[in-house]
Amino acid sequence: MRPELSLLTPIFEEEQGLARALPLLLDAAESMTERFELLIVDDGSRDAGPKRVESLARRDARVRLVRHGRNLGPGAALPTGMFWARGDWVLFVPADLACEPEDLIRMWRARADADLVVGLRSDRRDYGWGRKALSYAYIGIVRLLSGSKVRQFNYLQMVRRSLFERLPLHARGVFVTAEIILGAERLGARIEEVPLRYVPRLDGVARGASPRAMARCAWELARHFLVG
Prior knowledge:
- The chain has 228 residues and is of the alpha/beta class.
- The protein contains eight helices and seven strands; from the N terminus they run E-H-E-H-E-H-E-H-E-H-E-H-H-E-H.
- It has helices spanning 15-32, 49-59, 77-84, 103-109, 129-146, 161-164, 176-186, 211-227, and strands at residues 5-11, 36-42, 63-67, 89-92, 116-121, 157-160, 191-196.
- Strands 3-2-1-4-6-5-7 form a seven-stranded mixed sheet, with helices on both faces.
- Strand 1, helix 1 (15-32) and strand 2 form a beta-alpha-beta unit.
- Helix 1 packs parallel to helix 2 and helix 1 packs across helix 4.
- The protein is globular.
- The model has no long low-confidence stretch (mean pLDDT 92).
């Protein structure tokens, strides 16, 4: 039977955190629907994280692993995951979770009147002043150029598959989540925003704000608004 929900989680060098994250994700999914899958997309990890996922998948058919042959960078796992996901809804969840697991259930409940559910980060307590400034500037630039009313663009999202299949996406970096929101707005899709309780990363290394990732995001943002 086709899953109702795909939890899509990208990983890269997340071996340590997966021991904590995988059970939490499964418990949250079970509280949402009996028909779900946990789809892990590995972006070329060199640690034992993928082996941990493979071990779980052998015991639990609801868990699946897709792997990139090499590291493609933050954001690249989302298009790959959307290709392989089988659920009617796809919920993007980072490997460090970044929210209280039970808040995922609140996103799931918000789908009744939505085609896209956007999570809103409660705070940025682990951000330095420089990263906070970049984050607020990015949000401001995207809203100014697009006229979007959405308040955040790079956090958790849950998208209806039928909507995603209509979106002409080009980004493969972290701008892809903004591109999903902007495309949904252009199509007149129903968007719900759900405040989530942000939880700072406990394990591994965040790479979404690396110089390489930010440079690619800037390039994809410029391409989106200049080329369309």
